[in-house]
């Protein structure tokens, strides 16, 4: 068998070469810009996810997610005791009323007595103060509240606003009750810990709940709860002011305790209190709006957080790395849908991917208690769409300009074809007539071009045409507004130039002679031979009253003919 001639068979390329070729073809400058835009949108979505602005924009999604979630569990050990105006007691709660409340709850076996109130002494010799202090000494499960949001105090200030030391020192524990309000004044989050000096102060409800469960909040749990960048976590709201499962007024509790001492039947029984967490606070003051009701009391907010801790139904902000991984998956899906941009299918894909993110966020929220946010990822997908749409429009424009140039420009010289020049000529004449501007036409003809082709060859002749066309282009103002100057190829070895807002003198000496002299100085080389070429030019201007191009073109031809017959390599004008 005969061997194939050398070079006939191609050497088989390695497997790595083909993907590399495809990557080089794919990564055009515009495509690279698109991918870099995608990367920037992804990074910005990661960076601003926890920003307050995006948290505010997430509110229209967070609140419905809370309302449409499966009903969370309600722990049976939470008892609400409200101090109400309708109870007939004077607000604020008096020292004796507080002491009697502690006495009743201790006698009935309350597991934790939690006051969302501040305890202040009324006087040095007050009988009510002594009675209250004695009850504190007898009771070992009282929890008191403090606040770092007092007037003129920065968060974490020391000491915080709270009860007098005589009560603080006798309480089992102290916790803060500060609640964050979003810009719309709705309470959605709380800080599980606030740093006071070297000591972190837990939220009162968390401290009570974890003591009830039999252990302190571990460092691991603390880090888990504060996964969000700002150290706050969302509240899982379960109960409203009107639907608190075990609610009694302070007057009912005090009255029931008095009746029980007399052996009478009472509305509130010891079994309703025994072994439970009793939350005591004002019901008619300091009301706060929440995602599920317009006015919630302090103990209502406290009870929701206690219930969240007891039932381990936290809503945690998705931590940065899992969020980044999930966002990256949707970014890749968006990239595949939008590279390249395909019009309606891409638009539908964007809506579908954004909808999938919302659905995924809702599933994470409802089933796992994880809040992934909505606004930043959806805006990232929207940014992908805008980038792709813009890139597609630029590509379309460039492609249209390319085909337009193919249809309007001469492939060899780059000058406009005569059919485009003719259309532009009528437009330029209308503009000159309307605004009374001068307008000139130049016709250029090569001197002895046929002998040049015969002597040096047609390829050399094409090179001469190209270089002279470059000289012509360089002598005119192609960016002038509103009507620019343009140059076209009139015939095989003839060019035409349209000069807007150009007088006869300027056209003759400022353009035509400039072109003629520049061409005369050109040096062409073929092998070891050098030669020059010359051109003849005819100039004509538009006269008042002329409405079309016929007369100005006829005069330009006459001027060119005159230049050719009277010696060549010169510029002649025809203005008769």
Number of helices: 19
> What is the CA–CA distance across the termini?
83 Å
Beta-strand fraction estimate:
15-25%
Q: Which of globular, elongated, flat, extended, rod-shaped describes the shape?
A: rod-shaped
Return residue spans where pLDDT drops below 50 for at least 5 consecutive residues: 151-157
Report the count of strand segments. 23
Q: Biggest sheet, in brief?
A: 7 strands, mixed
Mean of residue pLDDT? 85
Q: How much helical structure, as a percent, in the residues?
A: 40-55%
Radius of gyration: 44 Å
Which structural category do the helix and sheet elements fall into? Answer: alpha/beta
Detailed description of the structure:
Helix content is 48%, strand content 17%. β2, α5 and β3 form a beta-alpha-beta unit. The longest helix is centred in the C-terminal third of the chain and has 34 residues. The strands form 7 sheets. Strands 1, 2, 3, 4, 5, 11 and 12 form a 7-stranded mixed β-sheet that branches. About 1% of the residues have low confidence. 36% of the residues are buried. The radius of gyration is 44 Å and the shape is rod-shaped. α2 runs antiparallel to α14 and α4 crosses α9. The two termini are 83 Å apart. The chain is an alpha/beta fold and 576 residues long.
Break the fold down into its secondary structure elements and pairings:
Elements: H1 17-26, H2 29-48, H3 52-68, E1 78-83, H4 95-107, E2 112-115, H5 127-138, E3 142-147, E4 161-162, H6 165-168, E5 173-176, E6 179-181, E7 187-190, E8 193-196, E9 199-202, H7 204-213, H8 219-225, E10 233-234, E11 247-249, H9 250-261, H10 270-273, E12 277-282, E13 288-290, E14 293-296, H11 298-310, E15 316-317, H12 320-338, H13 344-368, E16 370-371, H14 375-408, H15 418-435, E17 439-446, H16 449-456, H17 458-475, E18 486-491, E19 494-500, H18 504-520, E20 524-526, E21 529-531, E22 535-541, H19 550-565, E23 571-573
Parallel strand pairs: 1-11, 1-12, 2-3, 2-12, 3-5, 15-16, 22-23
Antiparallel strand pairs: 3-4, 6-7, 7-10, 8-9, 13-14, 17-19, 17-22, 18-19, 20-21
Helix pairs in contact: 2-12, 2-14, 4-5, 4-9, 7-11, 12-13, 12-14, 13-14, 16-17, 17-18
């Amino acid at each position: 068998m005969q061997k194939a001639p050398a070079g006939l068979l191609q050497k088989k390329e390695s497997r790595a070469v083909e993907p590399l070729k495809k990557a080089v073809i794919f990564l055009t400058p515009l495509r690279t810009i698109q991918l870099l835009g995608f990367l920037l949108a992804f990074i910005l979505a990661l960076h601003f996810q926890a920003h307050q602005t995006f948290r505010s924009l997430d509110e229209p999604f967070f609140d419905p997610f809370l309302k449409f979630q499966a009903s969370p569990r309600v722990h049976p050990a939470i008892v609400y005791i409200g101090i109400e105006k309708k109870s007939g007691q004077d607000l604020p709660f008096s020292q004796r009323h507080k002491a009697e409340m502690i006495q009743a709850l201790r006698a009935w076996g309350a597991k934790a007595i939690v006051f969302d109130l501040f305890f202040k002494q009324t006087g040095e010799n007050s009988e009510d103060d002594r009675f209250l202090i004695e009850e504190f000494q007898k009771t070992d499960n009282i929890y008191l509240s403090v606040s770092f949001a007092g007037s003129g105090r920065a968060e974490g200030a020391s000491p915080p606003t709270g009860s007098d030391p005589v009560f603080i020192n006798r309480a089992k524990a102290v916790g803060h009750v500060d609640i964050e309000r979003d810009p719309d004044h709705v309470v959605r989050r709380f800080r599980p810990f606030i740093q006071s000096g070297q000591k972190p102060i837990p939220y009162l409800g968390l401290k009570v709940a974890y003591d009830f469960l039999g252990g302190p909040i571990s460092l691991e749990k603390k880090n888990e709860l504060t996964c969000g960048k700002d150290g706050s976590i969302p509240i899982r709201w379960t109960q409203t002011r009107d639907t608190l499962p075990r609610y009694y007024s302070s007057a009912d509790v005090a009255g029931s305790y008095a009746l029980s001492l007399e052996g009478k039947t009472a509305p509130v029984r010891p079994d309703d209190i025994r072994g439970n967490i009793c939350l005591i606070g004002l019901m008619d003051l300091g009301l706060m709006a929440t995602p599920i009701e317009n006015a919630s009391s302090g103990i209502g907010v406290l009870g929701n957080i206690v219930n969240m801790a007891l039932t381990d139904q936290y809503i945690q902000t998705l931590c940065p790395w899992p969020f980044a991984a999930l966002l990256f998956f949707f970014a890749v899906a968006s990239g595949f849908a939008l590279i390249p941009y395909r019009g309606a299918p891409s638009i539908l894909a964007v809506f579908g991917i954004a909808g999938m993110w919302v659905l995924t966020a809702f599933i994470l929220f409802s089933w796992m208690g994880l809040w992934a946010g909505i606004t930043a990822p959806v805006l990232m997908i929207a940014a992908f769409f805008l980038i792709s749409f813009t890139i597609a429009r630029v590509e379309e424009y460039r492609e249209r300009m390319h085909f337009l140039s193919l249809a309007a420009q001469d492939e060899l010289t780059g000058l406009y074809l005569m059919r485009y020049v003719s259309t532009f000529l009528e437009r330029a004449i209308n503009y000159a007539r309307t605004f009374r501007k001068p307008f000139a036409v130049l016709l250029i003809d090569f001197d002895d071009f046929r002998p040049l082709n015969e002597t040096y060859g047609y390829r050399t002749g094409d090179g001469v045409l190209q270089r002279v066309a470059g000289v012509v282009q360089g002598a005119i103002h192609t960016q002038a507004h509103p009507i620019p100057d343009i140059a076209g190829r009139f015939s095989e070895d003839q060019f035409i130039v349209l000069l807007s807002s150009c007088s006869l003198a300027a056209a003759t000496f400022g353009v035509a002679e400039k072109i003629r002299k520049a061409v005369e100085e050109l040096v062409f080389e073929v092998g070891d031979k050098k030669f020059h070429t010359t051109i003849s030019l005819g100039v004509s201007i538009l006269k008042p009253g002329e409405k079309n191009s016929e007369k100005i073109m006829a005069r330009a031809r006459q001027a060119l003919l005159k230049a050719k017959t009277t010696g060549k390599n010169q510029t002649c004008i025809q203005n008769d």
